[in-house]
Design goal:
Strand order of the largest sheet: 2-8-7-6-5-3-4
Strand content: 15-25%
CATH architecture of the largest domain: 3-Layer(aba) Sandwich
CATH topology of the largest domain: Aspartate Aminotransferase, domain 2
Bound molecules: D-malate
Number of domains: 2
Order of helices and strands: HEHHEHEHEEHEEHEEEHHHEEHEEEH
Helix content: 25-40%
CATH superfamily of the largest domain: Type I PLP-dependent aspartate aminotransferase-like (Major domain)
Length: about 400
């Protein structure tokens, strides 16, 4: 038996696990300290009432013989796919139901999709980036080419015609930087992909945080995207499903490489390796898309947006360069006084008892930067920002 040696190329532990261990060790040594957590992008508001009611009703259905559900369709129940279809249609994007695949979250599908793509492909990944894109490709032994996201390009790299790539990862609004591509910029990426017969893997997990109606929330708002892009989306951040787990992946019918439809391959993969998301959770997710669910969710999104406004206000007060926070729940800031990002992490944890994520954990270009999330409690967020601004005065 031989192990997959590609795993040995990975960092010793996943970024957010490393941080969790450091924070747990600090808390153990200092049990009296109140730590404010703005590290991992985990939501703090509870599920909205419409979702909870649907979940409870669905649980009751499961407890009665006449309405019990066993295995469901691997790609999701029609009632939820219709809800997703309608969600896109309300933004003028037409999808066929079979182009929608319900998943247990964007993270799983972003990794799993690689099953249907050859290990020979060259992958183009922005740096800094959500670590899952890099790790899953390292696990498969794929060649990775990085593109620089930096202060000069607003952390929104554009295609370089000299670079050859088969698979391109884009995330907008971006994790970790909070930067958002314009339609014109995304059109450049779609044109680049089409000109090379390349595939874009578009992570739209943060689309619901876009307030500016001129900015795209889906890659399918861009001409030609259905011929070159798969979109991953999630209810984690939008509807507080980080612990509930439900997302969806769009694989358009028009997506065809070497005469093979990716939709067909993905369906084949899912029917073999996945037994679908639990019925109760799919009912809960469908409720999140209902009129009342959407209204309740928007209130929660507004709460986080208000947190972000407090944070951008504090950033302006410190005079530190930052991006994000306007159409995104993440603030990406330059560390003060030329500090390294882990150095700043330690300082925040030890001196201010605030946890963030070191930019370096997202790649080389994150060195000297730091990510804070707006998913916290209002009072905690305000308190953390006060501690920060006071300290930096
Ligand atoms: C993050 O903090 O980057 C996210 O919570 C990670 C994730 O969504 O998996």
């Amino acid at each position: 038996m031989k192990i997959n040696e590609n795993y040995l190329k990975l960092e010793e532990s996943y970024l957010f696990s490393t941080i969790a261990h450091k924070v747990a060790a600090y808390q153990k040594a200092n049990p009296q300290k109140k730590i404010i957590r703005m590290g991992i992008g985990d939501v703090t508001l509870p599920l909205c009432p419409a979702v909870v009611t649907a979940m409870r009703d669905a649980a009751a259905e499961m407890g009665r013989k006449e309405s019990f559900h066993g295995y469901g369709p691997e790609q999701g129940y029609p009632f939820l796919k219709e809800a997703v279809q309608h969600y896109y249609f309300s933004r003028n994007i037409k999808l066929d139901e079979h182009e929608i695949f319900i998943s247990d979250g964007a993270k799983s599908d972003v990794g799993n999709i690689l099953d249907i793509l050859s290990a020979d492909n060259t992958v183009l990944i922005p740096n800094p980036v959500y670590p899952v894109y890099v790790d899953t490709n390292l696990m498969a032994g794929r060649k990775i080419v990085y593109m620089d996201a930096n202060r000069e390009n607003g952390f929104l790299p554009l295609p370089d015609d000299r670079v050859e790539a088969d698979i391109i990862y884009l995330c907008s609004p971006n994790n970790p930087t909070g930067a958002v591509y314009s339609k014109e910029q995304l059109q450049k990426w779609v044109d680049y992909a089409l000109s090379r017969n390349a595939l874009i893997l578009f992570d739209a997990a943060y689309e619901a945080f876009v307030k500016d109606s001129a900015l795209p929330r889906s890659i399918y708002e861009i001409d030609g995207a259905k011929r070159c892009a798969i979109e991953f989306c999630s209810l984690s951040k939008t509807a507080g499903f980080t612990g509930t787990r439900c997302g969806y992946t769009i694989v358009p019918e028009a997506l065809e490489f070497d005469g093979v439809k990716l939709n067909k391959l993905w369906l084949r993969r899912q029917t073999t390796k996945f037994n679908g998301v639990p019925y109760v959770i799919q009912r809960a997710a469908a409720a999140a898309f209902s009129e009342v669910g959407q209204k309740q969710i928007r209130e929660n999104l507004q709460y986080y947006a208000d947190n972000a406004r407090i944070m951008t206000g504090a950033m302006k007060e410190t005079g530190l360069w930052f991006t994000g926070g306007e159409n995104s729940p993440y603030i990406w800031m330059q560390c003060p006084n030329g500090m390294g990002s882990w150095e700043f992490f330690d300082l925040l944890l030890n001196e201010l008892n605030v946890v963030g994520t070191p930019g370096e954990g997202f790649g080389e270009n994150g060195k000297g930067y730091f990510r804070l999330t707006a998913f916290g409690d209002r009072q905690d967020t305000a308190e953390a920002m006060n501690r920060l601004t006071d300290y930096l005065k």
